[in-house]
């Protein structure tokens, strides 16, 4: 019985960490989407990774709300209600968008308006 309690306690701690990461990713994605949809390109670009910022002359990303989040360590994928896919990376400064306006392409990686997966 004690052994099962230890397993259960570990599962609760691990699941708590996962949801915490998803919450932070959600916040970063929502902040980016809000800046992009309001036309605040400067703010949207500041929320990108350094590599993605090179593509950020103008941000024309559909708005929408966060629908689905998947987090794998320091990488995340966010799907929005507008059909957009965002990719995020955890940096020392927090979660940043590494790819936005991404669409699936059959038999190929995603095609992104800004950055990439």
What does this molecule look like?
The protein is 39% helix and 34% strand. The protein is of the alpha+beta class and 117 residues long. Strands 1-2-3-4-5 form a five-stranded antiparallel beta sheet. It is built from three helices and five strands, in the order H-H-H-E-E-E-E-E. The N terminus is likely disordered.
Give a short summary of the structure.
39% of the residues lie in helices and 34% in strands. The chain is of the alpha+beta class.
Radius of gyration (CA) equals: 16 Å
Distance between the termini: 45 Å
Low-confidence stretches: 1-18
Shape: globular
Structural class: alpha+beta
Order of helices and strands: HHHEEEEE
How are the strands of the largest sheet arranged? 1-2-3-4-5
Report helical residue fraction.
Answer: 25-40%
What share of the residues does DSSP label as strand, in percent?
Answer: 25-35%
Characterize the largest beta sheet: strand count, sense, and whether it forms a barrel.
5 strands, antiparallel
Number of helices: 3
Strand tally: 5
Q: Average pLDDT, to the nearest integer?
A: 80
């Amino acid at each position: 019985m004690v052994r099962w309690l230890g397993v259960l306690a570990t599962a609760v701690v691990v699941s708590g960490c996962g949801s915490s990461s998803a919450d932070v990713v959600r916040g970063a994605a929502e902040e980016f989407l809000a800046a992009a949809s309001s036309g605040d390109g400067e703010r949207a670009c500041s929320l990108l990774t350094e590599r993605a910022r090179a593509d950020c002359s103008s941000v024309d990303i559909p708005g929408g709300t966060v629908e689905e989040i998947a987090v794998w360590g320091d990488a995340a994928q966010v799907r929005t209600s507008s059909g957009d896919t965002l990719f995020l990376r955890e940096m020392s400064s927090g979660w940043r968008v590494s790819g936005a306006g991404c669409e699936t392409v059959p038999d190929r990686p995603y095609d992104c308006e800004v950055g990439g997966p």
